[in-house]
């Protein structure tokens, strides 16, 4: 009986976006149905009998007789190319006069159900959706606003809907705060220079706040007049930090959709489409998934636009895959990758060789957060089960262990898939949603923080000649960043190839994950996470002193305690105290230490953990002055077989012969082994940790505080931006760092 071996390498050193919405060709689609404001419907028109010679016509109906709907509509040029971009936007006023079908970039603004002009009164009204051209539609009235991106090809309609509301303020951490002062935006720098870009009715303004390149840039804060009566884009940016306002003002009311959550572009994996990579400066590379052309649309605030294809066949210039493109330098814009039902939409800004991107999440902005929550809750439940079998220190990575099991889930079917999803906490999420959420998380974690190295890797090792389904391999590549490698299982060097991969991606902290490879092995899936973080403020080695650590069974041992006083994020709970110690220059990552009160058993504390409780605690941490005394320690855990533990989490049907992995390959398969290894080291300069796992599938601020961590404690390494838990650990008997 042959085996499918999934090796999960989970290593840490202590120290989405969401795809587009779509419909089948020629389907009648309700995009927006707001009974108090507006209804937007895409009406199929393949025979071009309705109003316009387009495959779809947009019907806009004002639902409130006392509230007209203002319509702003930007249609990008269809024939513009990267080599010959469209120059400027032609503003056509308030009616769709003859000529809209010309290959120009056009902007219209009108009203539906209005009374100021005769042409406004009709309700509903109809607007063309040109074939193979990206369009941006804004429906607004006072503080009600909807932003819609649309694109039609071959009868398929891709659309992204964003609902806004009254504008209050936009703050981008570490960059700027944008507030409204009368008829103006006030932009206040929170640190260095802030680039400001404003587009309205085809006109573009670019400026800086608190800058130094020109005298007029130096002022801080600065004010900018809010465009009146029509869609506008207002961006504040600097390198990897961006914030975007898309809005409409009328009669003193300002409705807007705001976006934040940016990062530097390194590599964005887009499930079902491909990969977007930054190449330095404004240069990017687009790699299309095998057999799936990617349509690339680009619009710059300076009014230029173009579109192209990668891996296509309609024109010879579309065929190369990957392809490189030059975006605009020192000028913001939008970049969209799409094909039929799938899309990824970004706002960008580049300066000084740093290309920042702002993913625009659409119909499910919480998808990444839902995947993060599933990972965290899975980690707490698994940790609790491990305590039933362990008597010493325990460490695992929810992020690292979740990865190969989610890849395995993508290859499962029926009850087998349900059981894996149950164990991982993915009920209510489809496989595509999990892949998209995880891809968004990987993209979020790509942004670098000086002083922190976070390395993630995943590989699918496929037995030479094995007919594994391409859909499974694509899910691994696009949703989980896996590289696909062909492996001659019977070759003497096969074992070293896999273990060598482990050593490479764990920086030598884990020598091997497998002791042998069964000759019947079909597939090995390896994943590795490596984290090395320097404390934002290091502990002084000169202050390290020996002291007693009280062991759970009585008695003490002498440990070297690091001590530092300063300002920390601190929480005093009912039966514990906790402190967050940040890593890196920006403090994005942190070690959260939880010390149960005297008399409170650490195992009982850990068993009480849940994602809901954890998230509530995260909101209650407050900055306080205090002193932390923490033992230096190292923790080596594994190799640990997790199969029985996962069975108790509900994965039983996937762990026995007869399991259904029809999305992976034909024939029977089951998970026959799940192995995990972890390593953590904490010292004065920071933290180092690593872990590895393997899955085998076989055929068939208030008062000051003092926190002395001198008894068993729990820790977590967390990405504070996404909430992702990279590592969890329980230390009952610390081993000193040599």
Automatic annotation (TrEMBL):
InterPro entries: Serpin_CS, Serpin_dom, Serpin_fam, Serpin_sf, Serpin_sf_1, Serpin_sf_2. GO terms for molecular function: serine-type endopeptidase inhibitor activity. Pfam families: Serpin (PF00079). Residues 380-734 form the Serpin domain. PROSITE patterns: SERPIN (PS00284). It comes from the Bacteria. Coiled coil: none annotated. One of its GO terms (cellular component) is extracellular space. Belongs to the serpin family. This is Serpin domain-containing protein. It comes from Candidatus Caldatribacterium saccharofermentans. The lineage of its organism: Bacteria, Pseudomonadati, Atribacterota, Atribacteria, Atribacterales.
